[in-house]
Amino acid sequence: MGGKTVQMVLEYDGSRYFGWQLQKEEPTIQGIIEEAIRRITGAHSSLIASGRTDAGVHALHQVCHFKTSSEIAPEALKRGLNALTPSDILVKDVRHAPQDFHARYSAKSKTYEYRILNQPDPDVFVRAYAWHVPHDLDFAAMKACMDLLQGRHDFTSFRASGSTNVNPEREMMRSELHRSDEHHLIFVFEADGFLRHMVRNIVGTVIEVGQRRFSRDDFVHILHARDRRLAGTKAPPQGLYLTMVKYE
Amino acid sequence: MGGKTVQMVLEYDGSRYFGWQLQKEEPTIQGIIEEAIRRITGAHSSLIASGRTDAGVHALHQVCHFKTSSEIAPEALKRGLNALTPSDILVKDVRHAPQDFHARYSAKSKTYEYRILNQPDPDVFVRAYAWHVPHDLDFAAMKACMDLLQGRHDFTSFRASGSTNVNPEREMMRSELHRSDEHHLIFVFEADGFLRHMVRNIVGTVIEVGQRRFSRDDFVHILHARDRRLAGTKAPPQGLYLTMVKYE
């Protein structure tokens, strides 16, 4: 395990992939990039991301790092990786980082966006890039829920079922809902970290508030109850984008 | 061959398909829809489109028709087709048409758009939905070429190689170039008909004018020469959209 720590920024369309994490039989982002690095440097390097995106989830700005004894220049590595990887993965930036840089542990915040197509008919061109919600939504009630999430909370109610081994408290620096045009809504979440499925569980629950299945008071109750059986249905993966990772 | 003529409007993402026209081994739009009609009505119907889109070409508004003796109501047929077809095909409208309606021969004009992503880096999310042209382009020169195309012309120079059996004259009602935002260009063509590959050959040639490989005078010469060996390289399919078909 040698010399240099290399830090990269990736953009990917997650539609075709079984998520970030290496799998034996299925294509994953980690698998594709590690194989390309091996072909360029001649040695295996383990790639560590700021966080593991799930199958179908996209990234506009995913940060990852690996260690290598290769002397290849970052710009040449970037060109080589882009030549070797499919067109749904783009290596946007490659640079040398301080020896102790860690894509996950050094991160100060991550930002996710979740996109909703809100119109009666589906749209064939965004089926893999947004969640189609055909119902009328109470935008003001949804915005009120998003406001409630700001600050430090125990997000147990919105974590994935079965995941109990990490501290469920997170600092939510931004939680916003925007109408980007007549038919598109965008949720924005920036936090010091996210529990597994947390964004998708929050979005699914806020959408149920928008559909008036839950009230704003129900939402407060769900957040404070620390009981993951209370939240709404998890939103599907294709609306979710990792859009930024910030470091010191 | 019975009773009713049914007219439909389709939207589709052509990425996964080998074009409109039925093929034995490969998925095509015609093949998918004809099979769904057969499952709903119990009988085969031949589907005729306003024009056959090529592999990878998209449609926001493709019109097609078929004849059937089925008594099924248009609204029920629409629901059934949307339930049976994949999410990259959307049946937007189904209605009964006059007995002699013909999706191709009754059409008065068709409109195509061609989308260009014009920035140094590719974008993983539009790789299947626009042509990535990284070079600086002379927008004014390209616009001048588009203006020249208006009116009645012999488009032999821009037809597909090997297709010689139809009259190459077409009436171009609109030929425009717009900058939709900083990094996106949109070509719009409305004509009484299009020769095979005509839009892609025109766009490829106009882009070469934008790159200053051809001058505006070269473009005039190419158009008037009626010689398909002179035009530029054909633009790739993924930027092309059939956006409207007009009838009387």
Description:
The structure is a homodimer of 248-residue chains. With 248 residues, chain A is an alpha+beta fold. In chain A, 23% of the residues lie in helices and 31% in strands. The first copy, chain A, contains five helices and ten strands. Chain A has helices at residues 29-41, 74-84, 139-148, 198-210, 216-225, and strands spanning 4-12, 48-49, 58-68, 89-97, 107-117, 131-132, 151-154, 169-181, 184-191, 240-247. In chain A, strands 1, 2, 3, 4, 5, 6, 7, 8, 9 and 10 form a ten-stranded mixed sheet that branches. In chain A, strand 8 and strand 9 form a beta hairpin. In chain A, helix 1 (29-41) packs across helix 2 and helix 3 (139-148) runs antiparallel to helix 4 (198-210). Chain A starts with a strand and ends with a strand. Chain A binds chain B through residues 11-13, 58, 87-90, 92, 121-125, 127, 129, and chain B through 11-13, 58, 87-90, 92, 121-125, 127, 129.
What would you say about this model in short?
Helix content of chain A is 23%, strand content 31%.
Keywords:
homodimer; globular; 23% helix; alpha+beta; 248 residues
List the helices and strands and how they pair.
The structure is a homodimer of 248-residue chains.
Chain A: E1 4-12, H1 29-41, E2 48-49, E3 58-68, H2 74-84, E4 89-97, E5 107-117, E6 131-132, H3 139-148, E7 151-154, E8 169-181, E9 184-191, H4 198-210, H5 216-225, E10 240-247
Query: What proportion of the residues of chain A is helical, as a percent range?
Result: 10-25%
Uncertain ranges of chain A: none
Indicate the overall shape of chain A: globular
Q: Radius of gyration of chain A, rounded?
A: 19 Å
Number of strands of chain A: 10
The most extensive contact between chains is: A-B, 16 and 16 residues
Seen as an oligomer or otherwise, the chain set is homodimer
Compressed to H and E, one letter per element, the order of chain A equals: EHEEHEEEHEEEHHE
Mean pLDDT of chain A: 95
The assigned structural class of chain A equals: alpha+beta
Task: Report how far the terminal alpha carbons of chain A are from each other.
Answer: 25 Å
How many helix segments of chain A? 5
Most strands sheet of chain A? 10 strands, mixed
